[in-house]
Design goal:
This protein is α/β, with parallel strands linked by helices. It has ten helices and twelve strands. Helices cover 40% and strands 19% of the residues.
Length: 248
């Protein structure tokens, strides 16, 4: 069954001003779950209580690679909140010339999280498709050399297309290894800027249908940059999901 949530990085400015109030607005729009990009300084018990009160599921969290080695602390917090996944969201440019070390680090961290009942995912941008390690793009190298049980894919459809590839192809390639998918749209002009779902050129319905077929559990709306009020953008994207018949 497909579930639809919001990556809260989209609303980062609002979250800084009113974390719990913004969570309430997300719930009122109709999103079922959330992916965190920070916890607003709340204790795990307080955050879980807020989620339960709002009828939201905390599913996953983006945690910087430099912090992911705090395995026990992160696991304890995540389990109270109810998270199933922790995600490496970004690779600093200084680390993009040594994917061999990254592969080893992710593999070791993923094994530790798996032992504690959490899944580690890696979230892509476009730079993983700009270089090759041997005969594979860095993205594929990372997953070819890590255990699927320990390192899974959070595929970002926009960035795959921005790199010149097709997200549906990658969903099929990593069937059963991609539990999370970021849904974004892309403007059709030369800027290729982020757009609300349904306001750009990417095949959102195909992403979802192919995702369901290949084992995606959660689809997260994310818009890195919004042209106006970010809350209006996530409302527009949710309306498109409703128009497509995927949410009520």
């Amino acid at each position: 069954m497909a579930h639809f949530g919001l990556q809260l990085y989209t609303l980062r400015d609002r979250m800084q001003q009113d974390f719990l109030g913004t969570l309430q607005q997300v719930a009122e729009i109709g999103y079922e779950g959330v992916e965190f990009a920070g916890f607003g300084g709340l204790s795990a018990t307080d955050l879980r209580a807020a989620l339960d009160r709002l009828g939201l599921r905390g599913v996953s969290a983006h945690i910087p690679l430099a912090q992911l080695d705090q395995v026990d602390e992160i696991t304890e917090y995540a389990k109270v909140v109810g998270l199933e996944y922790v995600v490496c969201p970004w690779l600093d440019p200084s680390m993009r010339d040594n994917y061999s070390d990254l592969m080893k680090q992710l593999g070791e961290l993923g094994a530790k999280y798996a032992e504690r009942g959490l899944s580690l995912c890696y979230h892509n941008h476009d730079f993983e498709f700009a270089v090759k390690v041997g005969d594979r793009y860095a993205f594929d190298y990372l997953f070819a050399n890590t255990n699927p049980k320990h390192v899974q894919v959070e595929l970002d459809a926009y960035w795959v297309h921005r790199a010149g590839f097709t997200a549906t192809d990658y969903l099929e390639r990593y069937k059963g290894r991609t539990p999370l998918l970021h849904l974004k749209d892309m403007r059709g002009d030369e800027s290729k800027a982020f757009a609300e779902l349904g306001q750009g050129t990417l095949p959102i319905r195909s992403f979802i249908e192919e995702g369901v077929k290949n084992g995606v559990s959660w689809f997260f709306v994310e818009q890195d940059v919004c042209p106006g009020d970010a809350l209006d953008s996530v409302k527009t994207s949710f309306r498109h999901l409703r128009d497509l018949g995927f949410v009520k």
